[in-house]
């Protein structure tokens, strides 16, 4: 079996492909079905955020290497697009089986490089696996339309065809799920793909790519290039790449959106968030507090759908006391520790940023109900840990409210009515998700109708849709018009060809008409 070195653990990957017996920490690119070492002289360390151990190193792929990956994808395209859809689906069917078999290894890689708990890492893999399962039904998803006899003896039909070479650029926070939002849909539609994983945690995706090839994905259909800004810019500029899927922060996403669309590419860009939970006075106390703690502090707040802000309608104090009690009981430790509730944040810089934003809240008058900034985790003293932190009496003008914190920090606000709460949420620049906690159907329906967010939860804190729906951000959380996965995802990775056919015995001698044809 292939050996992939992760810190002190050496574990194997199920396939017999070319990246076996590696002992080097350097992570190869994947070009035309081969794992190839980059000739770059520049590498970035992939660091275990709980220990600071160097897990691996990714290369800053050179321009020549990037071009060879795109060429491999371009070369693989004609025969892959002509491969029967049933065969392409079967590759996904096998792929989902292999992901299930390798779930523990994949989750361990996620935890080692990203920091989240093993259980949460399994969820990361599982939510991606569901997209692979969905891609197994691509023949139905990709169906065109047919109208018979649009004019006498003439029929029109549309075909959803693949685009060609597509690319994906991924963030660090879901190293398995987000790559799986992208390439399974793209390639099952008949496209070929170049993916750039996050430079912070490429390991899980390397394993997934190997499993996809073991499942039968032909050489060149999926390629991997590592790097940061330069390779991303090269993706935006490349004339052979037709579409880009991006997930990450707003500065990167808007840059990529502008640069790639200026080249005529399709772009879907999922970006930052500030997700609000509105708590009505009639909400079920116990389940609401559980939901707020889980969605605020789970994955150390590093989910784009984390509920980072709570707006209590009415008196917030009794709620805050309960929140505090439950948040204090959470165990912060390395994600590999079985009793850990939350792990570290991704980097020292991320920790510093969280600390700074919390302090800015305090400086502008917020009350620090729980301060996790100076937590020390026994056995993991070097880890980038931040304990659960709660700021109350926060107002919309504060920097800690306006900025995405992306750490285990829950911000508490207060509103006098549901109308006022909705106004606060709608004024925020982001619109990824929003949730209401209530026992009133009237309040829930009003919230659902008036709230400006892509994903709405009603007594559901993290309403990430399953793949038969799409992941739908709004306002500054999304740029583009076709969302990730679901029907929109298939539309994103396909273009429509409309065919008008005429099969009838044409009467001779009717003359030539130069008028615009109309239905007869
Ligand atoms: P990031 O923007 O720093 O990095 C994402 C990718 O873009 C990486 O591959 C990185 O190499 C590249 N990149 C970063 N800056 C770039 C630049 N200036 N030019 C070109 N490429 C650049 O994001 P991150 O820190 O990895 O991820 C966290 C962010 O992602 C948060 O804002 C979070 O809300 C967001 N996110 C959003 C969703 C969603 O679906 N809306 C899902 C997950 C994460």
Explain this structure to me?
The chain is of the alpha/beta class and 520 residues long. It is built from 16 helices and 24 strands. The strands form 7 sheets. A 7-stranded mixed beta sheet has the order 16-17-18-15-14-20-21, sandwiched between helices. It has a 6-stranded mixed beta sheet with strand order 11-10-9-12-13-23, sandwiched between helices. A hairpin with a 2-residue loop joins strand 1 and strand 2. It is globular. Nicotinamide-adenine-dinucleotide binds next to helix 8 and helix 9.
The biggest sheet amounts to: 7 strands, mixed
Radius of gyration: 25 Å
Bound molecule types: nicotinamide-adenine-dinucleotide
Number of strands: 24
C-alpha geometry: globular
Average pLDDT over all residues: 95
> Would you tell me the structural class of the helices and strands?
alpha/beta
Stretches where pLDDT is under 50 for at least 5 consecutive residues are 1-17
Continuous helix count: 16
Could you tell me how far the N terminus lies from the C terminus, measured between alpha carbons in angstroms?
Answer: 66 Å
The largest sheet has its strands arranged as 16-17-18-15-14-20-21
Helix percentage: 25-40%
Q: Kindly estimate the percentage of residues that lie in beta strands according to DSSP.
A: 15-25%
GO biological process, one term: thymine catabolic process
Keywords: NAD, Oxidoreductase
Protein name: methylmalonate-semialdehyde dehydrogenase (CoA acylating)
GO molecular function: methylmalonate-semialdehyde dehydrogenase (acylating, NAD) activity
């Amino acid at each position: 079996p292939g050996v992939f070195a992760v810190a002190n653990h050496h574990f194997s990957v199920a396939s017999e492909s070319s990246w076996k017996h590696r002992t080097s920490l350097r992570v190869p690119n994947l070009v035309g079905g081969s794992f190839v070492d980059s000739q770059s002289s520049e590498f970035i360390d992939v660091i275990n955020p709980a220990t600071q151990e160097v897990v691996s190193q990714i290369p800053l792929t050179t321009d020549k290497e990037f071009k060879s990956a795109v060429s491999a994808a371009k070369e693989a395209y004609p025969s892959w697009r002509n491969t029967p859809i049933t065969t392409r689906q079967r590759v996904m069917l096998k792929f989902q089986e292999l992901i299930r078999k390798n779930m523990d290894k994949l989750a361990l890689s996620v935890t080692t490089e990203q920091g989240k708990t093993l259980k949460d890492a399994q969820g990361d893999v599982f939510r991606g696996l569901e997209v692979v399962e969905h891609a197994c039904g691509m023949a139905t998803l990709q169906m065109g339309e047919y109208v018979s006899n649009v004019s006498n003896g003439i029929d029109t039909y549309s075909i959803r065809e693949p685009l060609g070479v597509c690319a994906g650029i991924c963030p660090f926070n879901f190293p398995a799920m987000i790559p799986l939002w992208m390439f399974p849909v793209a390639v099952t539609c008949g496209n070929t793909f170049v993916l750039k994983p996050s430079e912070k945690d490429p390991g899980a995706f390397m394993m997934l790519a190997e499993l996809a090839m073991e499942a039968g994905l032909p050489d060149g259909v999926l390629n991997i290039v590592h790097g940061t800004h330069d390779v991303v810019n090269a993706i935006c500029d490349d004339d052979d790449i037709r579409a880009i899927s991006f997930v990450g922060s707003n500065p990167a996403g808007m840059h990529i959106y502008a640069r790639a669309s200026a080249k005529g590419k399709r772009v879907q860009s999922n970006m930052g968030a500030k997700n609000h939970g509105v708590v009505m006075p009639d909400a079920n106390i116990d389940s609401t507090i559980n939901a707020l703690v889980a969605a605020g502090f789970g994955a150390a707040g590093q989910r784009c759908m984390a509920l980072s802000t709570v707006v209590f309608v009415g008196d917030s104090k009794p709620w805050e006391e309960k929140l505090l009690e439950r948040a204090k009981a959470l165990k912060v430790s390395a994600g590999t520790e079985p009793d850990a509730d939350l792990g570290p944040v991704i980097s020292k810089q991320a920790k510093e940023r969280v600390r700074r934003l919390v302090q800015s809240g305090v400086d502008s008058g917020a009350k620090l109900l729980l301060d996790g900034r100076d937590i020390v985790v026994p056995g993991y003293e070097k880890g980038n840990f931040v304990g659960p932190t709660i700021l109350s009496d926060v107002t919309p003008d504060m920097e800690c409210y306006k900025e995405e914190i992306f750490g285990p920090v829950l911000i508490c606000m207060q509103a006098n009515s549901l109308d006022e709460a909705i106004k606060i949420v709608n004024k925020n620049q982001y619109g990824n998700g929003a949730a209401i906690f209530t026992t009133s159907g009237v309040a829930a329906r009003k919230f659902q109708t008036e709230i400006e967010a892509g994903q709405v939860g009603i007594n559901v804190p993290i309403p990430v849709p399953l793949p038969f729906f799409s992941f739908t951000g709004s306002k500054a959380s999304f740029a583009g018009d076709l969302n990730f996965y679901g029907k929109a995802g298939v539309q994103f990775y396909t273009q429509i060809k409309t065919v008008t056919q005429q099969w009838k015995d044409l009467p001779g001698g009717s003359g030539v008409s130069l008028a615009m044809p109309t239905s007869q």
